[in-house]
Alcohol dehydrogenase (Metallosphaera prunae), 315 residues
Amino acid sequence: MRAFAAVLERFSEPLVLREADVGEGLPVKVKASGMCGRDLVIWRGGFRNLTPPLILGHEIYGEYEGNPVGVYGVETCGECRYCRAGKENLCENARFLGEARPGGYAEVVTVKEGGIFPLPDREYEKYAAGVCPLATAIHSSKVAGVKKGDTVLVTGAGGGVGIHTIQYLKSLGARVVSVTSPSKSEIVSRFSDQVITQKDFSKQVKDVDVVIELVGSETINESLRALRREGTLVLVGNVTGKEISLARPALTIMREHRIVGSASYTRAEVEEAVKLIHEGEVKPVYRKYHLREVNTAMKDLMEGKVLGRAVLVTG
C-alpha cells in the first residue's frame, strides 16, 4: 500500500515528503503521531542496525473502519519467556514501528492483527502527546518502586517524557524535584515541589530516594551525587547518545546505589495511560505541527524549543 509520508532517506538530513510504500496490513488513517526522542536518535544514525529509507514514528493514533484507535508501537512475539511472563516490553523478538516496519509519520499506517486498541474518544492529539511518555513514567516508577512520600528527582523534566512523568509522580504522592532549563521552569513548577535550573543541581538537593534519569550522560553524575545511600537511579534515556561514565565510582559503591534500566512499557501500561489521560488525571503538554512541517518540528526538538511533546497531525 502507498500513502503520503515523511521519509528518512539519509541520516541527519531533512525528511523527504513524498508518496511511499507503507506496507500491508490493517490500514489505520493517521490523525496524530507523537515525536519521540527515540526518533531523533534514529534520525542521527544512532541505531546501527537500521538502514534508510525509513518512515519514523511509533506513537500513532487515528481511525480504523471509522472507529478511533491507538496503535501499539511495538510488535511482540507473544512466545518468548518475557512475553509469556507479561513482560512484553522485554520481548526477545520485538519489532518497533518506524524501524522494522513503516511508522506514523504518514497519512496511513498498516499494522498486523492485534496491533490496535480502541480509544474512549476522538481527541487524538492528546493521546499522541501523552500516552507513550506516561506509559514510560508508569513503568519506570514501578521499576524504581516509587511510593507515597518518596522524594524523586527527575532530569529533563520539561521534555516530552519529563513533563508527563512529574505529573504521574505527583499523582502517586511523591515529592517531585525537577531539573529543567530556565525557559521551561514556569510550567514545570506547576507539577513540582522544587525546580532547579542550574547544571550543578546536586548543590541544591541531597538525599533523594529515587532518580528518574531521562537525560543520561549529561546529568547522571550530578544525579548520583544527589541520591541517598541505598537509593535507586532508573536510567530511562540518554538523549545525546554519548557514552555514560561514572565520574566517581566510589560514591556509588560506598552508598550502595542501585542503577537500573527501564525499557519502554507493557501494553497494560499503555492502556493505563490512556485511562489516566481520558479521565484528566494527567494533562498532555505538547506543540502541534502538520505532517508537512515535520522538519521544522525536528529542528525545534533538537534545539530544545518544544515544551512537552511535539505532535504531527494530518488534518
